[in-house]
Structures are given as structure tokens and as C-alpha cells.
Write a sequence for this structure.
């Protein structure tokens, strides 16, 4: 019996049994002993064998090869994803989904799809670019004949470089925006309503309420409109006739006449004509605003105007949220490297960020601290960076649909 080392508590000695006959690793290349009795291979050595390489080669060709209906790009699906997935990436999935939902006669939706294909962007990226809620655009695609409200029409017209009247004509709703259609529906409903206070008016409201309750509590198929136009018109008239509505309108009017309200109103008017201004343009707007309002607000200065504008510009991603300033040179450099890739999918090739690091060092590009960025540093910068110029580029970032 050999003398062993002291145990964990340092008490005495611990006897050790004679070491069993060791087994040589079965890979046939290393000639080393296995670490654990009963094992055939050392850790990681089974992958060197011909049987393991053959199994790996066969596993690579499992599944199904498909052609993306959007790119088109050939991609391989693993067996578990053969039944559901149709596109090669999340961007193509978004384009394919809304391409199927787009309804005939709406040229503005086709412009959106063309922009998404050119920029390799999802509908969420389009919504962020124009400053419209993604759910608004999604419902617009999903509901045939649905009219888009004027804020959305103005934003899309500015993005595509067309006039608002042309954008309304391309909606395919007979030259009516969402605001116009709402006013028309209210006028039609009010013209056919019974007089307030009559029995017919009361029964009409009760029938609309009963239909709404049956729709949610019972499975009656398609009961028609959940709430009729007559009930909507009655609610609108009742709401506009209350003191609360009058007080809210008065509060909005009073706020619009304040210095902050006038400054913000001017910003919204400028953004309606130019939705993607740079910092120099924003500074020019601020100076012009001070000059225009100097007669009524003599104490107004550019700094005060910029501070009141900041939250609205950040909301539209025209200014960073805070912290370090946006590095536009680094953004342009990464987009140039992405454009030079031969692949069109969302997955970047192996070693891409190492190549970016070497090219950046050759050009002398540095980070905010004045030091060259590593490959991992460039990867983290691109993942967290946001600006209007690269909002549609999703390669190397977390994918959202």
C-alpha cells in the first residue's frame, strides 16, 4: 500500500490503492492514457475518428434545402423546422408576411414593401424610421380597405418623396384618409339616427349593446359590426357635449399658446416636410425659430429651444438618448464593410469582426476613448448603435420581426 497525501482536513494520511492498468485512448493518434477508468477516449478525441467525422458529415446534410421566396437565397432547414419555416431570415419573414397580407389597389403598401426589400428591413424598422406605431402599420396591412390616418400618410409621403395628395390617392380608399373617413361615417350615421330622447333611439342603442354582448359571450359566428355606426355617432355627440371635453379642448388650446407649445408646434410642422434632418439642419431650425418668435418672446434662445425639442427628436431617433455622442464615422465604416460582403443573409461570415478590426486599424479609426477598438468592441458598438441611416440594417444585430 502506497502512502497518499493528507486528506482535505489535514488529518493523518489517506491510504491509496494501487493504480489500475491504464487504457490507451482509442483515437489512435495521441497515444495517451484515458483520464477515467472505463473510458475509451480522452475528452474531445472521439471527434478525430473517422466514424465521428462521417456522422458529422451526414448530420450537416439532414433536413431540407429550400429557396427563400424573398431574397432568393438557398438555405438548409434542420429536421425540426421543416414543417413551419419558409424564409431564410427574420427580415425575409417580415417581408413575406406582409407581402401576403397586402391588399390589391393600395400602391402605398407596395412602396413600403419595395423599401423593406431594398433596405433589408422589417416592418418594425419601417415604423421606427417614419415615427409611426408598428401596430398601426400592421393593422393597415391586415385589414383590406382600411384607411391610414394623416400622420401616417404624411410620414410615408416624406419617406418616399411624394406629395400628401399623391399618397392619399395611392391608399386605394377613394381619396379618403382615415380622418376623412371617420368624419364621413359620423355624418352619415348622424343623418340616419332617430331623434335623441325617442323610443326608437333607445331601442337602437340597446340592440347594439346586445349584439356586442352576444359576440363576446357566445359563439355565434360573424354577428356583423360589434358596435354600429349609429352608436358611435351617439357616443361622439355625447362626448363633445360634455363639460369635460370642453375643458380638455380649452387646456390644449392654452398649452398651444405657451412658448413651449409654439416652439413644439413649429418643430412638428418642420418635421412634416423634412422627416430625417441632420444636426446642422436642426440647429438651423432652432435659430430660425428664435428669430421668428423674437417679437413675442424676447428672452427665447437656441439652447432653450433645443432642450424643448430634445424629447421629440429622441423619440424619432433623430438624436441619441444620452451618454456618448453618436459615432457616425464608425457607423459609415461598418456599413461599408457589410456592403462589401458577397452573402446576402443576416448571418455574418466567420471572422468578419476580425477583418473589421484590421481594416479599422489600417485606416486609423479609434473609439470614443481614443484607443483602437478590438473585433469584439466593433461587434458591441454595432449591436448597440442606432441612427436613421442604419435603422434598416439588421445584419449583426438581434433580429426582431
Amino acid at each position: 500500500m502506497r502512502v497518499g497525501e493528507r486528506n482535505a482536513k489535514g488529518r493523518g494520511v489517506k491510504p491509496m490503492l494501487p493504480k489500475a492498468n491504464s487504457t490507451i485512448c482509442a483515437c489512435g493518434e495521441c497515444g495517451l492514457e484515458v483520464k477515467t477508468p472505463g473510458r475509451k477516449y480522452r475528452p474531445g478525441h472521439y471527434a478525430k475518428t473517422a466514424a465521428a467525422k462521417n456522422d458529422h458529415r451526414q448530420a450537416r446534410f439532414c433536413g431540407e434545402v429550400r429557396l427563400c421566396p424573398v431574397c432568393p437565397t438557398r438555405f438548409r432547414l434542420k429536421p425540426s423546422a421543416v414543417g413551419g419555416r419558409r424564409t431564410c431570415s427574420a427580415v425575409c419573414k417580415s417581408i413575406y408576411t406582409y407581402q401576403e397580407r397586402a391588399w390589391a389597389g393600395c400602391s402605398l403598401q407596395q412602396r413600403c414593401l419595395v423599401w423593406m426589400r431594398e433596405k433589408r428591413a422589417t416592418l418594425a424598422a419601417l415604423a421606427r424610421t417614419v415615427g409611426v406605431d408598428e401596430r398601426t402599420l400592421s393593422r393597415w396591412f391586415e385589414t383590406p380597405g382600411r384607411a391610414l390616418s394623416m400622420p401616417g400618410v404624411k410620414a410615408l409621403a416624406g419617406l418616399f418623396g411624394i406629395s400628401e395628395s399623391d399618397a392619399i390617392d395611392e391608399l386605394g380608399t377613394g381619396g379618403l384618409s382615415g380622418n376623412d373617413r371617420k368624419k364621413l361615417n359620423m355624418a352619415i350615421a348622424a343623418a340616419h339616427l332617430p331623434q335623441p330622447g325617442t323610443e326608437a333611439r333607445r331601442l337602437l342603442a340597446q340592440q347594439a349593446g346586445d349584439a356586442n354582448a352576444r359576440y363576446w359571450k357566445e359563439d355565434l359566428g360573424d354577428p356583423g359590426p360589434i358596435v354600429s355606426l349609429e352608436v358611435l355617432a351617439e357616443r361622439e355627440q355625447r362626448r363633445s357635449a360634455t363639460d369635460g371635453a370642453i375643458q380638455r379642448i380649452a387646456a390644449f388650446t392654452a398649452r398651444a399658446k405657451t412658448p413651449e407649445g409654439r416652439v413644439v408646434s413649429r418643430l412638428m410642422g418642420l418635421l412634416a416636410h423634412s422627416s430625417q434632418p441632420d444636426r446642422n439642419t436642426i440647429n438651423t431650425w432652432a435659430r430660425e425659430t428664435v428669430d421668428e418668435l423674437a417679437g413675442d418672446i424676447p428672452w427665447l434662445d437656441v439652447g432653450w429651444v433645443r432642450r424643448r425639442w430634445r424629447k421629440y427628436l429622441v423619440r424619432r431617433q433623430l438624436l441619441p438618448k444620452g451618454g456618448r455622442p453618436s459615432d457616425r464615422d464608425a457607423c459609415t465604416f461598418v456599413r461599408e464593410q457589410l456592403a462589401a460582403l458577397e452573402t446576402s443573409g443576416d448571418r455574418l461570415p466567420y471572422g468578419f469582426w476580425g477583418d473589421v478590426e484590421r481594416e479599422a486599424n489600417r485606416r486609423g479609426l479609434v473609439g470614443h476613448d481614443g484607443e483602437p477598438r478590438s473585433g469584439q468592441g466593433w461587434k458591441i458598438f454595432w449591436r448597440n448603435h442606432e441612427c436613421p441611416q442604419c435603422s434598416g440594417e439588421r445584419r449583426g444585430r438581434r433580429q426582431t420581426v
